Amino acid sequence: MGYEWKKTKYEGIRYREHPTRQHGVRKDRYYVLRQRVNGRRVEEALGWESQGFNLQKVREIQSALLLAAKTGSGPRTLAEMRAADEQARKREEENKEIERNKSISISDYWDTYLAFAKTKKGESSWEKEESHYRNWISQVLGDVPIRELYRLEHWDKLMAVLVDANLAPRTRQYVAFTLRQCVVHAYKRGMVDAPPPQLKDVGAVLKPNSNQRTRVISTEEFKQILNNLREKDEYAYRMTVFAAITCCRASQAYDLEWGDIDFSERTALVKEKDHTKRKIYLGDKVMDMLRDMDRVGDYVFVNESGDKYKQAPKSFANVVKKLGLNKGRRRLNKIVFHSLRHTGATRLGKLIPLRDLMDVIGWKTATIAMRYQKTEKEIQDKATIELEKMVLS
C-alpha cells in the first residue's frame, strides 16, 4: 500500500497522514527522519504524533543526532539512540536491584537458598538445615540484612543464644554452617559484597575429639537390643541388623533401594555424603534376610506403614531406653543408632589394617589416589563375616 509522504519546514523530516484517525483537529501524522551517516543515506521511523512525536519533538531529536554526527560524540542514528537508552534503562534497573538487595534479610533470602539446597543435597540434609533456620537462625537473625552478615557481631549474637540454650558443640557448629552456606550462596550470586567469616572465627569449630563417641556396644547389649527389637518392630530390627553388619550410616540404610542390590554378586551400592555411591559386600546372613523381605516400593527398609524412613527408627532409641543402657551415661557415652557404625569400626580396627578399614567403613583421605583405592573383595568378606558373628551369633 502506497503512502503520500509530505515534507516539513525542516530538511530531512517528513510525515504521512493516517487515512482515518484524527489527532486533535487534523489527521494523525507519522514522522520519519532522513539523514546521511558515514556517506550513506539512513531513513528511520519515529512514530505517530498521537504517540508523542510532534514536529517539535522530532526536530529536537534530529538536532541531537546532527550534533552527535558533527562532534563525533553520542548516538548518530535513532537505532544508536534507542540502544543507548536501553543500556541506560538496564543500568538504572541494575542500580535499583543493588539497592533492593541491600535490604534483603536472611528471612527474605532463605527460600531461595533452600530451593537450591533441595537440588544439591539429600532430603535429610536440607531438612536439618530447614530446622536450623526455623528454630534458631530466623529467631535470632531473621531481620538482619544478609549483606551485613560479614560482621562478627551478628555471629557472636547467634552463638551466644545457642550456648545459652545448652546446645551441643556439634549442633552449634551445624547451625553456624547452615547460616554460612546461605550467605555464601548469596555472595556467589552478587547479592552481597563480602563473604561471611570462617567458622573458626565465630567459635564454631570443635576441638580435636571433642565430639567423638566413646561407647562401644557389647555383644550382650547387642543381643538385648536385637531381641527386643525383633519383638517390638520387625522393620526396625532388619534395618538395625543391616547397619550393624555393614557399618553404614542410618541415611545409607534408609536411602538404599532394591535396585542398588546385586543379589548375584552379593553387593550393595550405598550413597555417600557427597552423593557418590560406594560398593559394599554383603554376607550370607544379610543376603538371606534381604531375600526373605517383602518388596514394598523402591526402598529396602520401610516402616510398618510401607513408608521410607527419614531418620533412624525411633524403636531403636525406645528399646535402648527401656533396657536402661544409657542410664547415668554422658551424652557421648550413650548408645544411639550411629553407635552401630562406631562399634563396628572399633571391632574391625583390631582385625584388619587401617587402609583396609578405611575402605570397609567408607572413610576418605585428602588425596585423590587414596580416595579411589578399593579393598579386595576377600578382605571385605572377612570383615562382613566377623560382624555377622558379633551381631547374629
Automatic annotation (TrEMBL):
<keyword id="KW-0229">DNA integration</keyword>
<protein>
    <submittedName>
        <fullName>Integrase</fullName>
    </submittedName>
</protein>
<comment type="similarity">
    <text>Belongs to the 'phage' integrase family.</text>
</comment>
<keyword id="KW-0233">DNA recombination</keyword>
<dbReference type="InterPro" id="IPR011010">
    <property type="entry name" value="DNA_brk_join_enz"/>
</dbReference>
<dbReference type="InterPro" id="IPR013762">
    <property type="entry name" value="Integrase-like_cat_sf"/>
</dbReference>
<dbReference type="InterPro" id="IPR002104">
    <property type="entry name" value="Integrase_catalytic"/>
</dbReference>
<dbReference type="InterPro" id="IPR010998">
    <property type="entry name" value="Integrase_recombinase_N"/>
</dbReference>
<dbReference type="InterPro" id="IPR050808">
    <property type="entry name" value="Phage_Integrase"/>
</dbReference>
<keyword id="KW-0238">DNA-binding</keyword>
<dbReference type="Pfam" id="PF00589">
    <property type="entry name" value="Phage_integrase"/>
</dbReference>
<feature type="domain" description="Tyr recombinase">
    <location>
        <begin position="212"/>
        <end position="385"/>
    </location>
</feature>
